[in-house]
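Supplementary Methods S3. Complex input for the flavin-adenine dinucleotide-bound model.
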Amino acid sequence: MTGQSESRIQSRWKGNAVSSSDVLIIGAGAIGSAVAYYCTQQGLDVTVVEAGKPAGETSSKGEGHVRISDKTLAPEIELAQYSLSLYRDELSEQADYWDYQLRGGVMVSSTDASLESLHSTIAKQRQLGIEVEMLDVQQLRELEPALTAEVAGGALYPDDARLAPPKMVTRLLELAQQTGARLHTQTRVTGFLRDGERVTGVQTSRGDFSAGAVVNAGGPWSGQVAKLAGAYVPVEPRRGYVLVTEATEPRVFHEVSAAEYLDTVSSSEADLQGSAVIEALPSREILLGSSRERMGFSAEGGKAAVDLITRNAQTLFPFLQDVQIVGSRFGFRPYSPDHLPIIGPDAAVEGLWNATGHEGAGAGLAAGSGKLLAQVLSGSPPDLNLAPFSPARFISRGERG
Ligand SMILES: Cc1cc2nc3c(=O)[nH]c(=O)nc-3n(C[C@H](O)[C@H](O)[C@H](O)COP(=O)(O)OP(=O)(O)OC[C@H]3O[C@@H](n4cnc5c(N)ncnc54)[C@H](O)[C@@H]3O)c2cc1C
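Predicted complex, serialized as structure tokens:
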């Protein structure tokens, strides 16, 4: 199987020549599907190869928060705001397909010390353009009456939303296919085709595919995928659990998190971390998240994470002690060592592009990441400066492994 599309676009972006209209995307998760959709919107000829099935990995294992509230790094805030605006406006016709809801995020501090730390985070976030309202105990209680009595204060982030990531993947791929994209499932990339140093396609378990540009959207496996091409992408799996309750009466009305969640997200610790992140689904089940630990792709020893999540959730919402937990699942977030996604042309291997490293925010950041990468692949200037996300930043720091 060899892609027959002719190269027809000649353009340059920051010195990286894009000399083809045909793009092959490795991975059909949230990121690969968003890249595929936006590439077709740019008129590019798109092939997606997926080792398993669409949204078969991380993108069906997590929650669906589309958040601005947990962002503290300027480039990620810019990307999150851009992505949020796409879900809210440009993609609004798709909202029902993926259960998009703009519900607002509530951050809860249980102690004075935690509240003080939340205040300083908020001061920084406001400087970086995030809209957030401080809440006293009474206001918190009005928004979330079922919260624990042990609260010191909190904040409301009106722009926080949610969606169902697997449904988003399905719909984005459907739209891409309606515009000509080809999707090959059960097709694992095992190597790369080359013309000299340049990548010109992939070898897979189902034959070779040629392409003018290859996008590595392999999620937590993107480091391994890059290695096959002789490239370096320092993404590692960061395991996370989520629990699901039985359906209940509506008692959680926003995307609710303990303020400590901000520390968990930005931490680089390998050991088990967890803080409460609670989300009610349209089906009236409640998702209880989450944990973080770096232990490779191990499926061993999840009990500690499950116990921690249960404890944290019941502390924040005591009524959950009487609600049955009916399921748990875990996935591997694509962890990037500096907590910023990796988006753009590979630093060392011409013809290879990366769209990965979104860790615990890939569903929320998918639309923005996909659109920006599609813009540069088609030779248009991107709506945002992609320099902070450049894969080259790790090479220039001498972190090449
Ligand atoms: C517990 C938990 C909670 C989370 N909560 C949220 C949240 O609330 N909001 C949010 O925005 N994000 C959340 N996330 C993070 C989010 O799920 C991820 O950032 C996102 O799913 C990453 O998408 P991806 O497309 O990069 O990776 P994936 O969904 O893993 O997709 C990568 C795909 O690449 C394929 N692949 C890999 N290697 C190959 C190969 N050699 N050949 C072909 N195909 C290959 C894989 O099969 C896979 O399907 C959470 C994650 C977890 C685990």
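The radius of gyration is 21 Å. Residues 105-158+236-334 form a domain with the D-Amino Acid Oxidase; Chain A, domain 2 fold (CATH 3.30.9.10).
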